[in-house]
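As practice, study what follows.
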Amino acid sequence: MSISPLDSSLYTPLFTVSEITAVFTDHTHIHHMLHVEAALAVLEPLLGQVIGLLAGLADGHRHTLLATCNNSTTPPTYHFDIHMQGVNETVFFDPQPE
């Protein structure tokens, strides 16, 4: 069951402007859902490529491409360092078209 601010006797008067009411229509909701699905369809194959690249790296290099999570903050934060050389040198890819 979907719930809309337009169903509420308290909130309905707040949405009397047609531009605001249009934001909460089923049509608008589905329209934006389809945009998200289209974006995911484009990114899904790329994600598979990234996972394949990570799997192909030696264990000693994989950590250079992953951010570390700090759960002690609210919201959690992520930290990513790029090392140009040395023991923790960040792995860079030069993607070549096939």
User: Anything to note?
Assistant: The chain has two domains: 1-56, 58-93. Helices lie at 18-23, 26-56, 59-62. The first helix runs from residue 18 to 23.
